[in-house]
Amino acid sequence: MKRVAVLYGGISAEREVSLVSGAEVARALAEAGYDVVPIEVTRDLAGLIEALSAAKPDVVFNALHGRYGEDGCIQGILEWLEIPYTHSGVRASALAMDKAAAKACFAAAGLPVAPHRLVTREDLARDHPLPTPYVFKPLAEGSSVGVVIVREGDNRRDEIVRSWCYGPLAMAEAYVPGRELTVGVLGDRALAVTEITTVHGFYDYEAKYRPGGSRHLLPAPIHPEAYRAALGVAAAAHRALGCRGASRADLRYDDTEGEPGRLVLLEVNTQPGMTPTSLLPEQAWHCGIGFPALCAWMVEGARCGA
């Protein structure tokens, strides 16, 4: 019987989400017949290495989210320990988490991205970095942590500057009107397109993880040409970053001037959520892949290396 250590928790702003993902994954893998060893990750790095050494897993299922969990850090530790692990390797994880680096990869691959620029807090304090409306976001956070939409007539720039705690650089990105789409990818297969609607104004942390915070329309009720294009963009983005295993691409679909509209790739998540409200498991189920089978597929594809 294959022994799987499930890493969950972590020290990022997404710790609570990871705790739920890890518990769900551990139950599913046990149901699928694996010997499961849950390991809660804290700031005690030596303790983590000791726990992994004691568990002697054949595979690590990485259920961590956010910084230090999906940015290449934990992946580097697992490479050093020579333990195969799920999801993307060090390079792809680091690229995807760095929004500026990821957009450079997407643009080089000919994929559609929104106009954007890197700015400091001082830049924002002086003036709007882009014409309004625009999106102001951290360079290396997930789950919409720290994301703010600055609209015409918005006087929150000083407030954003005072409260900013996500590093010296941020990204200002042109706001794309329209609809929120997401596409899960398993290996070289784009699964489906989901449209996300929310009463929160945009798909923020609360909308993602609070019951009733959002509504998932699967398959997305969009023009067939746009649906096919979204699948293609997600698969191409997965390849452009060098991802492996599962990923999820987030896109905006601007159909405000009619269909088929235009697609804009926002980012790729190399550690998609595995909670009861998460999008990747929902799309897998839509394609006939149950949750235990999805987790088992990830485990069987685990490895070290890029």
Please supply descriptive tags for the structure shown above.
306 residues; alpha+beta; Rossmann fold; D-amino Acid Aminotransferase, Chain A, domain 1; Dna Ligase, domain 1; 3 domains; 5-stranded antiparallel beta sheet; globular
Question: How would you describe this structure to a colleague?
Answer:
This protein is of the alpha+beta class and 306 residues long. It has 3 domains: 84 residues, Rossmann fold; 112 residues, D-amino Acid Aminotransferase, Chain A, domain 1 (2-Layer Sandwich), CATH 3.30.470; 59 residues, 2-Layer Sandwich (Dna Ligase, domain 1), CATH 3.30.1490. It has 11 helices and 12 strands. Strands 10-9-8-11-12 form a 5-stranded antiparallel sheet. A 4-stranded antiparallel sheet has the order 4-7-5-6. Strand 11 and strand 12 form a beta hairpin.
Strand content: 15-25%
Strand order of the largest sheet: 10-9-8-11-12
Largest sheet: 5 strands, antiparallel
The third-level CATH topology of the largest domain is D-amino Acid Aminotransferase, Chain A, domain 1
Supply the number of structural domains: 3
What is this structure's SSE topology?
Layout (H helix, E strand, L loop, with lengths): L2 E7 L5 H17 L3 E7 L3 H11 L3 E4 L10 H9 L8 H8 L1 H10 L7 E5 H6 L7 E5 L9 E3 L6 H7 L5 E6 L4 E8 L2 E10 L6 H5 L4 E4 L6 H18 L4 E9 L7 E8 L9 H8 L4 H10 L6
Parallel strand pairs: 1-2, 1-3
Antiparallel strand pairs: 4-7, 5-6, 5-7, 8-9, 8-11, 9-10, 11-12
Helix pairs in contact: 1-11
